[in-house]
Amino acid sequence: MLHVEFTTPLGARVTVDIADSRQLDATLRQYGRLGWTSGDVPTGGYQFPYDNFPDFDWSLIGARKWKSPEGEDVIFHRGHSYKIRVLEAVDSRKMKLPPAIKISRGAKNTDPAHVREKGEGEIEYVTLAIFRGGKRRENLAVPAQEHAEAAD
């Protein structure tokens, strides 16, 4: 039996038992839709394949896509709003990187030092996720049935 610990948006810790490991993704989706999260965001953010971005299921990490009052698509996670930034490929003598999509926000003085990343100038960022390279993983996509219902 698996035990998954979630944290609710109000900070309550709830343990959910899963009898069959094949139900893990469904359980993460079920509680993630409520904004419940499990675990901490890794330093540098979650790493996902680039091709998963268009239909990534944000409920897997307790997040949701949201349209800001300015009409911009953002990702809402644990009370923070993250911008979607498109990064061009880098091809220089020192570095080669494929294009990426980075989900990040400006750092706050309450953010621990280990999650802050230096940006240009004195700006610091906190990254929730980055989509770069890799091979598409179907288990990270919104399930086909839900995707069809959302299109209706």
From TrEMBL:
DNA-binding listed as a keyword: yes
InterPro entries: ssDNA-bd_DdrB-like
Lineage: Bacteria, Thermotogati, Deinococcota, Deinococci, Deinococcales
GO molecular function per UniProt: DNA binding
Classification via Pfam families: DdrB (PF12747)
Organism this protein belongs to: Deinococcus aluminii
Taxonomy, superkingdom: Bacteria
Descriptive protein name: Single-stranded DNA-binding protein DdrB
Keywords assigned by UniProt, alphabetized: DNA-binding
